[in-house]
Amino acid sequence: MTKSEAKKRIEKLKRLINHHRYLYHVLDRQEISDAALDSLKKELFDLEQKYPELITLDSPTQRIGGKPLEKFKKIRHFRPMFSFNDAFSEKDMEDWQERISKLLTEKEKKEIDFFCELKIDGLAIELIYEKGILKTGSTRGDGILGEDIAQNLKTIEAIPLRLKDRDSPRTVPEEIIVRGEVFISKKEFEKLNKERQKKKLVLYANPRNIAAGSIRQLDPKITAKRRLDSFAYDLVTDFRQKTHEEKHQILKSIGFKINPHNKYCKNLTEVFRFHKFWQEKRTELPYEIDGIVVIVNSNKNFEKLGVVGKAPRGAIAFKFAPNQATTKVEDIKVQIGRTGALTPVAHLKPVLVGGVTISRATLHNEDEIKKLGVKIGDTVIVGRAGDVIPDIIKVLPELRTGREKKFQMPKKCPICGTRTIKPKGEAIIRCTNPKCFAQQKKYFYHFISKGTFNIVGLGPKIVDRLIEKGLVTDPADLFRLEEGDLIPLERFAEKSAENLIEAIQSQKKITLPRFIYALGIRNIGEETAVDLAKYFGSLVKLKKATIEKLENIMDVGPVVAKSIFDWFHQKKNLQFLEKLEKVGIKIEKIKTKTKRPKLKGLTFVLTGGLESMDREEAKEKIREFGGEISESVSQKTNYVVFGREPGSKYQKAKELGIKTIGEKEFLKMLKQFTLL
């Protein structure tokens, strides 16, 4: 082959190889196999070795070449490369729009729209092409001066060495300036770390650090081994483009790889939808993103808005909720696990971490507390990774005020009072009472049951998990839970967590009889709780009641009176009542519908399922009007109210000749007494 023939062949090979590079990296399409493309590259390489004078800067063989540099030279950017201000919430975004709107005319305000890009966790670069061929490539640097890393950028297949001819009739400028992002995929990141692990080297912290470190290697051969990728996102050169969206279309047409997920959004509502979608789906992407970039789509308006500090007013980084945040340790409580293990749990000032609000973080054990040096009142960094309860990562002792308190693990179990032990060779302190955890669970089950706080959706299995994970130590803690505390639990999605928190918060108001019954005082059933509420009228008076006064109540004998008196004179119980008040529990006064109770002296028994209300509601309606409730049918029973599928109580009422009334007749009775 003559030199002239070789030159023609080389040009054809370059065009063909560049065509397939464009298909693969820009259009995500492949017409020939990797092996076939490698074969074309090998032929080109061999020809250039034979005729080295035919090697040009835009040749695909020049992606990896040249001697290692001694240092990078500085390059001044044609226009400053700005960074973006951050927004972390929809409110932040609304405030941003309000700020920029003040700088626009009424017409411009109405026409404002946006272009959204995925914010890749990589390194910003600038590329300059002269007559379609890559001349220089640089880092952002300080925004004014960057470092010339052209040799390293040439190793990245996604970056064209020669621009593609455009089909558009527009005049193509001789110099074209493009900006983009260099990054490494999750797959390549993991691959590099596995290699380092085999060599017993320190692992890389994150993909961005690798991308930045790789692009700044003085030897481009090292950069080439890292298999970096790139997206173009901005066209500095004037092609008479009117919108940012149009910039992307032009970039793609001249050979650049554009992120296919970037999207036009006509208003903030669509921006929020786009942000939420990718916050939930980002794990499915082959690369890391930490938010979206929202840009005013009109180039004219963007330029008009100008720059404040080092950031353009017309663009903002709408970040995803961080996986770490700082907050305060308000308290440290000990949770007793199923096996008796004592686990310290930090009660935090609620903070947004990983998209959800959390208020608890595990401290694992006594050794972990010593290692962290955490105190009550400390400012800490808390993190959440995967489906686990948040951890305290670091204490910030520089922010201490001197009022912080040292925490000591209890010598006795906080639930049952049994002395704790630390088995030899274990880090865990344990309660040796095998019944302790079961008693605690049973109390929780009673507290949330239908006859007490009636928290719908909070069943025994969820309670068990909350106790085991250290999220609650007593029922008052239920009312302090946040959505983010529940999401890490198995089978809890964002919506189910939201629903349960709403259900718990909706039950903060409770009648006095239900509240007394919920306290789980020994020997106090539903009816005795009602009698106590009626007699004393308030919790304050009940707390102050003497044993003699308690015995004045019908059916309250010496044993029951002492049980009530003792309960209200135990320090831990009084602290529990204070805690319930602090979390917002409100005790409603007993309702009195009329001066002369119409059902006074009448006893009702309920059986079967009611359609219009549950059984507890029906009982309360009867009590409101002076009636009594019994759980069994006897000659003292006046009415048996039956619903669907009534049980044996209905049959016994028939045998004893007790009057039975259906739900319709019962509702008619209540309506007659103006109870509804």
Automatic annotation (TrEMBL):
Q: Which GO terms describe its cellular component?
A: cytosol
Give the reaction(s) catalysed: NAD(+) + (deoxyribonucleotide)n-3'-hydroxyl + 5'-phospho-(deoxyribonucleotide)m = (deoxyribonucleotide)n+m + AMP + beta-nicotinamide D-nucleotide
Cofactor(s) the protein requires to work: Mg(2+); Mn(2+)
Q: List GO molecular-function terms, semicolon-separated.
A: DNA ligase (NAD+) activity; metal ion binding
Its recorded name reads: DNA ligase
Q: What is its EC number?
A: 6.5.1.2
Gene that specifies this protein: ligA
Principal EC category: ligase
Provide the residue positions that the database annotates as binding NAD(+): 83-84, 117, 140, 181, 319
Q: What does this protein do?
A: DNA ligase that catalyzes the formation of phosphodiester linkages between 5'-phosphoryl and 3'-hydroxyl groups in double-stranded DNA using NAD as a coenzyme and as the energy source for the reaction. It is essential for DNA replication and repair of damaged DNA.
Which of this chain's residues are annotated to bind Zn(2+)? 413, 416, 436
All residue ranges annotated as the BRCT domain in the record: 594-676
Please provide the record's keywords in A-Z order: DNA damage, DNA repair, DNA replication, Ligase, Magnesium, Manganese, Metal-binding, NAD, Zinc
Write the lineage as a comma-separated list. Answer: Bacteria, Candidatus Nealsoniibacteriota
UniProt-listed Pfam families = BRCT, DNA_ligase_aden, DNA_ligase_ZBD, HHH_2, HHH_5, OB_DNA_ligase
| Superkingdom to which the source organism belongs | Bacteria
The biological process GO terms on file are:
DNA repair; DNA replication
Does the record bear Magnesium in its keywords? yes
Instruction: Report the sequence similarity comment from the record.
Output: Belongs to the NAD-dependent DNA ligase family. LigA subfamily.
Active-site positions, per UniProt?
Answer: 119 (n6-amp-lysine intermediate)
